Structures are given as structure tokens and as C-alpha cells.
Amino acid sequence: MQKEDLLQTHTRIAPYIHRTPVLTSRLLNEIAGANLYFKCENFQRMGAFKMRGAMYAVLQLSEEQKSKGVVTHSSGNFAQALALAAQSVGVKAYIVMPENAPQVKKEAVKGYGGQIIECASTPIAREEVAAQMERETGAFFIHPSNDLNVILGQGTAALELLEDQPDLHYIFSPVGGGGLIAGTALAAHFIGQNCQVIGGEPFGADDAYRSLQSGQIESNETTQTIADGLRTQLGDINFPIIKEHVEKIIRVEEAEIIAAMKLVWERMKIIIEPSSAVALAALLREKDAYAGQKIGIILSGGNVDVQHLPF
Amino acid sequence: MQKEDLLQTHTRIAPYIHRTPVLTSRLLNEIAGANLYFKCENFQRMGAFKMRGAMYAVLQLSEEQKSKGVVTHSSGNFAQALALAAQSVGVKAYIVMPENAPQVKKEAVKGYGGQIIECASTPIAREEVAAQMERETGAFFIHPSNDLNVILGQGTAALELLEDQPDLHYIFSPVGGGGLIAGTALAAHFIGQNCQVIGGEPFGADDAYRSLQSGQIESNETTQTIADGLRTQLGDINFPIIKEHVEKIIRVEEAEIIAAMKLVWERMKIIIEPSSAVALAALLREKDAYAGQKIGIILSGGNVDVQHLPF
């Protein structure tokens, strides 16, 4: 993997994604005691950074592969992202979703032209049903986070952030399945000027923290967190990148996630989902260590049910 | 009043305000059937366009006037705006607020260094108390909307919007006390290329609609609307400008305001207050008449209690 791969990924997906703005806030700078640059992937198409990786993965398919479609399993933003990315280039998308997924998420996938296949609500069931769809239709399976093309796509958010603010000392990113933070770490490594990447992770789903401690992929012991995008775990493709290029992972309490989310809503007047707030929460938890630094924060997405808020 | 006055106002206040972004949304364009350009004054300092007018009014004071401070009466955004504007140049601000104003608003005014004077919750009481403060302290009274400097300041939002998008056919603005729409109308007149200004107003506080019908300033018969920034009425300084330069006013139902607000939250991922949603609601109510046009929409502010939402 080289800098050229990331730059070429960005060029390839640029016509299909938004170049999202980087926002600042005097008040949040005061609260953090540092200079913060928020990369607003909540303004990305379909409302999250996932669009980047999905788009690149779809664009990398051969014409023959495209003709048979793509398949993934996701109950969250990647389901919508793959449906929209596939639709953008006229490719069929099969999305395996748990039968108990929220109706609003199913509607969103349908709205982007995705075909939903329901499965039981267990990790094994969704993998099995996705594998079955792959066999039956010949569709190409794209993993939401453990896929090199997806990782490169997600890295373009930090690439853009570093183009706008080349001299960041740190970038904070949430850690879920590992695609975003792995891509961010590659971007910081290739493009940054000695820019360190730090992950934020809920105590309630801290597989990545423990994986970095033990040196091997650990499973989540619980997935009890409001940050529903971060309940998944690392994979064998993204973990080596994370192990090599991520400085550290800071775990945060649920109350810290909710407080950080409320802070962004009230002070920056933008809507972010709980998973997005985890990166800011991580910085605020250990802010004394980062005082005066120039820090990028990836606001990963804004898909939240405004009728059911945690505050 | 000339184009030069508006340009000079903008130059004068520019160091003290944010040049707010103009956002677009494919989804909202599809829903409206037109090309929309949202001027995001919800990202303005203290969270609303009111900062512009307050800042200009304060900057226009003589040194002697500044030494005695400023006074206004407001339970809403102008209270915060004048406190912050005054603080920005080291001037004392006396803010007359009804005793039953929400604690969070009082705290915000105090946070910006304003001194609160409580009064009974009637229009007459607040005017009397403000006049009394003026007499006692020598502070200069600045009206939230019926003041030429305030109107010019508010007009700089549309000025910036037209600098970014010079060929807008229409600008939609909410109508409350009349300062914003009068300033917007001046900007469209001076800077626009045949750009018409249209107001959005709640049926529950439709003094401006009826004033344009009758040709004289009418009072609100009720002020029952969720759009709490629009419960005030026009004044003798802004009404002549509105009468001359505003194309029409479209009234909207409460349900339309809430629906427009939810649309912006969910689709654009930004936080706007109910008063801000009135302009979009007005456009959507009569969207067939504006199909295919290039339309600016002033999102006037984002100060809303996220713990008490109408949806």
C-alpha cells in the first residue's frame, strides 16, 4: 500500500461523493483547550463516511462482476452506503439485514434501490445468508470494514482533512469495525506531517482497545453502547494496519458519549450520531494531554432518529 | 439608503461575525423541485443572524455613547446578540428580559457578559423598563428590529448569499419583527439581479401579511406559534422598506413549520430553530409556483432546546 493508492482512490470516487466541509468552533476550542478541525462526514451522501468505502469497492469491480451485483450484511450505515453506491453506477445491491432492524433503516436502503434479504439477528446468521446470496446470485461480497478497497475509501476523509489542514498533530476517529480508523491511519501516515491517529471506543464495546493490548484480534465481550455503529469488531485485514499505525485507543463511558454529542448539537448546530461523538468524547476525556495541539476530529455520520434522542 | 451603505456595513462588521456557509442538498432540491441555497445563520456567532445587526448598531455608537453602554428588551436571540456584540468591543449591555424567560436564555445572556434586568411579561412593561434604564444609566437604546443600523446589519446575510450566488431569482426569509426581511429586501434590491424577496410567516402571528394587505402596520391578533422568534410585529422604520421591496408574504401552518424543521434536521443534518423553518415551509407550501428557480433561503438561527423538540 502506497500513498499513490490512496490518492488514486480519492480521484476515482470524487465524482460520486461530497467533499465535506471542515468546521471549527471557538467554543469547542475553549472547552478542549486545543484547536479542533471537525471533518463533517455527517454531511456526506447518505449521511456517513461509509459512502466513500462502498463507492470505491463498487468502482473496483470488473464489468462482469458489476453485472451480477454486490452483496453485504449490515444493519447500519454500510447497508445504505452500498445500496446508494451500487445505484450510482447501475449495479444491483443485495443487503442482508436482521429481521428486527429498524423500519426506518430498511426504508432508507429501499429508497436507494437496495434489495433487502432478512435474516435472524445473529452475526452467524447474517454471514450465512450473505454467503448464500453470493452463491445463488453470483453477487460480489463486500465487507463493511474488513476490505482493503473499503479501507482505502474511508481513508479519503482524512486525506481531504489533511489537504485542508496539512499540519495536524493528531486525528481522532471512532473505532467500530476498523475500516475508518485503518483508512485514517493510512492517510495520516502517507499525507500527514508526523500526524498521529487516536481512536475513540466505548467501554461497552472495547474490542479494539483490548486487541491492541494483546496484539491479536479480540472479540467484544458486550456490545452495550449507544454508539450503535461501533458494536462490530476488527478484522484480519484492518487490524494489522491499526496495529502498525494507530497511536492509541481511548475508551469512553456512555455518559461521555452523550455529553459530547449534546455539545456538538448545541454549540456547533450540527446533527451527529452517537458513534460520531465518541472521537470527541475521547479527546475531552484526556484533553490535558493534547492542550494547544492542532487536532482533526472525524465526525463520522449523522444518521440518528431525531424522535428518540438520548437527551 | 444606498448600496454603498450596505457594503460599508458589511466591511465594518466583518471582523466580528462569521461569514456563514451556503449549503445545498440534492434531496431538498428534489423535494422542492427547485435549486435551493441555504444561508446558514444558525452557524453565526451566538447562533443567529441577530449578531449582525446588533454588531453594526454597537459599532455605530460614538465613543461617549459606548462609554454609557447599550440597552434593549428581548426575550430571544437579540438579547444574546446585543450582549455579545457589546462585549466584543468592551461596551456594557443592559438586557431587559421578562421574569418568566427561560433560565437557559438568561444564562446565555450572562455568559456573554450582559446585565439582565427583569420585568413583567408584557410588551408595555418591557418598553417601560427599558426606557427607565435608558434614563437612569444614559445607555443607548437599540431596538431588536426597528432600527436602521440593525436592518442594515441583518441585510449582510443576504449580501453574502448574493455574493456567493449572484443570480438567485428569489430569497425566502422568515418575518418576525421585520428587521431581517427588510435588510434582506434591501440587499436583494441593491445587489441582486432582479431578485425577489418573499417572506414566510406563521398563520398564528400574521401581522406582516395583514400589514401588506392593508398598507398600514397591523398588530398580531394572536402570537400562538412554535416559531417564537416571529411573535413580534413590524415597526415604522422597517415597514416602509418591506412595503416597497418585499414581493409577498406566504403564511404557513404550525404543522408545516415542524415538518420543514424536521426535514432540514434529517436531510441536511443541521440544527435550525422553528422560526428558521418558516421560510422553507413557505416555499414548500407554494412550491409549484417556484419550480426550477434558483432560490436562496435564510436559515435564521439554531438556538433550540434539544431536550424539548416538537417531534
From TrEMBL, chains A, B:
<dbReference type="GO" id="GO:0030378">
    <property type="term" value="F:serine racemase activity"/>
</dbReference>
<dbReference type="Pfam" id="PF00291">
    <property type="entry name" value="PALP"/>
</dbReference>
<protein>
    <submittedName>
        <fullName>Serine dehydratase</fullName>
    </submittedName>
</protein>
<dbReference type="GO" id="GO:0000287">
    <property type="term" value="F:magnesium ion binding"/>
</dbReference>
<keyword id="KW-0663">Pyridoxal phosphate</keyword>
<dbReference type="GO" id="GO:0005524">
    <property type="term" value="F:ATP binding"/>
</dbReference>
<feature type="domain" description="Tryptophan synthase beta chain-like PALP">
    <location>
        <begin position="14"/>
        <end position="301"/>
    </location>
</feature>
<dbReference type="GO" id="GO:0030170">
    <property type="term" value="F:pyridoxal phosphate binding"/>
</dbReference>
<dbReference type="GO" id="GO:0018114">
    <property type="term" value="F:threonine racemase activity"/>
</dbReference>
<dbReference type="InterPro" id="IPR036052">
    <property type="entry name" value="TrpB-like_PALP_sf"/>
</dbReference>
<dbReference type="GO" id="GO:0070179">
    <property type="term" value="P:D-serine biosynthetic process"/>
</dbReference>
<dbReference type="GO" id="GO:0003941">
    <property type="term" value="F:L-serine ammonia-lyase activity"/>
</dbReference>
<dbReference type="InterPro" id="IPR001926">
    <property type="entry name" value="TrpB-like_PALP"/>
</dbReference>
<comment type="similarity">
    <text>Belongs to the serine/threonine dehydratase family.</text>
</comment>
<keyword id="KW-0456">Lyase</keyword>
